[in-house]
Amino acid sequence: MNWFKQLFSRRRLYNDLSEEIQAHLEEKIEELVASGMPRKEAAASARREFGNVTLVEQDSRTVWRWAAIEDFFMDVRFGARMLRKNPGFAAVAIVTLALGIAANSTIFSMVSGWMLRPPSIKDPGRMVMILSTNPAKGWGWDRNPVSVPDFVAWRGQNHSFEGMAASEWGDFALTGGAEPERLNGLRVSESYFDVLGVSPTLGRNFLPGEGQSGHNQVVILSHGLWQRWFGSDLKVVGQAVNLNGERCTVIGVMASSFRLGLYGPQLWTPLVFAPESVLPAARENRSLSVLARMKSGVSVAAAKAEMASLAQRSEQTYPGTSKGWSATATLLQQCIADEVRPAMRFLMGTVIFVLLIGCANIANLQLARGTDRQRELVVRAALGASRFRLVRQLLVESLLLAFAGGALGLLLASWGVTMLRSALNWNDYVRSMSREVTLDNTVLAFTLGISVFAAILFGLAPALHQTALDLHSTFKEGGRASSHGKARNRTHSVLVAAEIALALALLTGAGIFVQNFLYEVYAGFGIDPNQVLTANISLSSARYKEPSKQADFFKNVVQHLDALPGVISAGATTTLVPNAMDEERVVTFSIASQPALLRAKRERTDYFAISPDYLRTLRIPLLRGRSFLPTDSVQAPPVALVNQAFVQRYFPNEEPLGKRVRLDTSASDRLEWTEIVGLVGNVGARSGEQKDFPQVYEPYLQRPSPVMTLAVRTNSDPAAFVPILRRAVWNLDGEQPITAVQTMNQVVTDYRAGGVVVSSLMGAFAGLGMALAIVGVFGVMAYTVARRTHEIGIRMALGAQRKDVLRMVTRKGIVLGAFGVGIGLALGAPLMWLLLPPDEQTAIPFNQHIAVFLAAAFLMALVALLASYIPARRATKVDPIVALRYE
Amino acid sequence: MVFDPRPRETSPLMKKSEQRDLFPGALEMMILRTLKRQPLHGYALVQHIKRTSNDLLQIEEGSLYPALQRLLKEELVKAEWAVSATNRRVRIYRLTPAGARHLQREVSRFEKMLEGITRVLARGES
Questions:
Q1: Cβ neighbours around A477 below 10 Å, total
Q2: Does the model's pTM come out above 0.80?
Q3: What domains are there in chain B, each with its CATH number?
Q4: Does position A90 have pLDDT exceeding 70, yes or no?
Q5: Regarding predicted confidence, which is higher, A779 or A128?
Q6: Chain A contact for B55, CB < 8 A?
Q7: What is the pLDDT of residue A308?
Q8: A162 touches chain B (CB under 8 A)
Q9: Which of A16, A20, A471 sits opposite B5 (nearest CB)?
């Protein structure tokens, strides 16, 4: 492109041109003089024949101009000058925009980090997740892991994929350091990293054969674990570590940049399929996360179709375990994004509303300012500027404002992101997620885009409005044009009504969210969390393979703790407080008196295996019957407790005690039935439809588990009890890691932390939106009243009463307020309600939200009333003489 | 006084090739043709065109310059400062190979157009 060169050589071009034209004229004159014409006459004649020298020169120059760009820069210079002349307006507009844009960019940094950033693997666009689906299970979240037999079968039968790999989370006790540590690791099939297309930075991938029992004592470390445990030792490969009581050889270290989902493991070991896990009956046990790389040229739709047909084959061959189950393939990145999509949609909707309100404010300001600028625009139009040219000029000014606002907004957003990251800090998972929240290039591009969007939003209407000029009447009125007053007032009114509607929607959304949250907080968890210390124990060591060993260990620990001074009671449970994340603690079950069903068709319940004193420790009320006793052991007949919700759902008008149930805690159906011996209160942090979810307890002595949470109620500060608890455990097994040592209050706080963060964000955004709306409505009203001062003066001079004037002026505010609230209630608030994540929508019945709708509507109506009343009252205090003089 | 509320603005693109009494591009074509014979400076060029057309074509001398700038920009001609036979500092324009090709194309297009017009006019007479 030579325009660039031209941009710099242009001065020379222009000089050449002038010189050339001058030379032309001289030559002509001389020729004419030579032919006998007097010099003066010759000069005139030469010029006549040449034409308009200036115009020719200008036309010639125009050829070299890059017109659009240069005019744009001219507009920019002019716009900047106009804004400098009006610093008050510019400051208000820029700050308003900066707030709106900062809110948007901050929230978008989460969208970018969690939904848009592809996993750091080879060709992520071809990586899909294979998921089991069953519409009858789950609550709208139909994504289930895959069973081992299905994985093995599908891996062998498919034609769509280059490779298929499975993984499963596991607990690992890492010993040999100062204290035993528990780590989250991923057991992966041999080809896992090959399918992903990644290799360790140090060492090698797993080799074929290392997924066989006996050959699996190898481990790949995460970058973080390598730094922490091995001090970034470059010679780590080949060294041994103690994992779950076995010696494992370190074969590799993954790069720090390797990232698959929102939460990464600390180590990887080979996944070994035990002989019983590949039996057909094991199809019931869906535990594998399966990834597959599509062959090039295979579409996701084709992969989906093939998975569905493969799953159908499983379903037909093994109806007992697979009836109703299908399978699908979903792009990995989409799977990751879907986890946060509802929350992100809601938050983005909220901040966009804030920005819209801000834009309405600035549009109003622009309109008001337009009156002052009308004279300038009229003169320019009269001199031949086209309307397009004027609109462009005004839009460029808006763009300047928007970019200034965007720049300041970015500054605020960088602070917002820091705040956000420090707030997302209540567990490992969220901490890992928070690390992805940065102001990356996507966020920068988004900020730029949303700035332009805002500029068009708040700039276009006023620009079109101001340039619809009637030069004739404007000139006649000496520039004090009010011929468009009506149209302008209408635009003002529309904007004000829109602001009220938007703010109302914001308030409603925030209100519903906070209402749900408070509802949850007040509902409690059905427990008494004060003065309770909890700790997780995962018996991952090979020493505890036998279930009876697991039961013995926990029995000993609980007895030990119970005997300590200062302990009121001690207990153990497989699940502390069920929340929506704890899907693996949900089991299917049958009731003895009801017809037998295939497993796939059975009902589901929360499941707990607990020690006898657990209920007493957490003060979960025993409503009827008896609690578990130390005598409820393997030798005794099996017993269970159920909660109120269970009885309401399955024994509505019957005596539950003495009924028999059978819980599916293992792959094959149990032979014996379990008798219900007691009825307890509901517990849990679930909300919505799952609020009253059935729950069943069994004694852990009868149903041992390797993973349990200890709970100790103390008679003093439970936090001071931490070292005592550790010692009690380590007295029994010095290599046993203890994790998540927290007071129960801390556990409860962490459960609520997400709600607190989102509620605070919502509160802040709704507050900001409302503040902007108040400023906007008040500003327009005050401006309208000020413009009517002259008229009000005349009215009062002619004998109008103050209250008449007051009524006249306030009426407009009330009408606008009513319109805004009406639109907000009809459109905005329901829209916000739809944006709410599904579990927030269902947390409380819709009719309980009506109160929030009404309160928000009342508040906004009040705002509109006050915003018009205050300027109106001020107007009536004006001395008519002053008002009449008012220009 | 009454203003048209929407002032016209002729697009600069239109203005460029607009040449009263001549069809768009005609002036450029004549310039290229003249320069093909021999390199000339602006004044000589305009005199030559006027003379050869027997003053039938009423062109303003100045209108030559925007056209020359366009040709320069499109690199169909190039210009150099030199000293003329009459001992003046002049800017000599000369055809580039691209200009020669362009001229050829334009002339053949013009001839086709002329042929078409002539036929229509001839048919109209009979």
A1: 13
A2: no
A3: 21-125 (1.10.10.10)
A4: yes
A5: A128
A6: no
A7: 94
A8: no
A9: A471
**The residue count for chain A:** 887
Confidence (pLDDT) at A470? 67
Cβ–Cβ gap B60/A49 under 8 Å: yes
| Residue A573 three-state SS | strand
| Cα A324 to Cα A133: distance, rounded to the nearest angstrom | 8
pLDDT reading at A100 higher than 90: yes
Picking from A6, A19, A20, A57 by the largest number of B CB atoms within 10 A of its own CB, the best residue to mutate is A20
pLDDT tier at A1 (50, 70, 90 boundaries)? very low
Per the listing, tokens 């979240």 go with: A141
Considering CB atoms only, which of A24, A49, A52 is closest to B42?
Answer: A24
Compute CA distances A665 → A51, A585, A669, B10, whole Å. Answer: 100, 9, 8, 83
**B51 in contact with A at a CB cutoff of 8 Å?**
no
What span, in angstroms and rounded, lies between the C-alpha atoms of A548 and A340? 41
Query: Residue B11 has what pLDDT?
Result: 37
What type of residue sits at position A163?
A: G
Structure tokens that stand for A861 in this block: 């109506």
**Inter-chain contact A21–B62, Cβ cutoff 8 Å?**
yes
The span from the first CA to the last CA of chain A, in angstroms, equals 56
Give the pLDDT mean for A873-880. Answer: 78
A33 touches chain B (CB under 8 A): no
- Give the largest CA-CA distance in chain A: 138
- Highest mean pLDDT: which range of A30-39, A439-448, B85-94: A439-448
Residue B7 has what pLDDT? Answer: 35
* More confidently predicted of B122 and A829: B122
Terminal Cα-to-Cα distance of chain B (whole angstroms): 52
CB–CB contact B60 A51 (8 Å): yes
Tokens found for residue A195: 């399918």
pLDDT, one tens digit per residue, over A162-177 is 999 999 998 888 888 7
Q: How many CB atoms lie within 10 A of CB A710?
A: 26
Instruction: Report DSSP letters for A323-384, one per residue.
Output: TT-EEEEEEHHHHHHHHHHHHHHHHHHHHHHHHHHHHHHHHHHHHHHHHHHHHHHHHHHHTT
| Test the B interface: residue of A4, A12, A63, A471 with most B CBs within 10 Å | A63
Residue to mutate among A15, A24, A25, with most B CBs inside 10 A, is A24
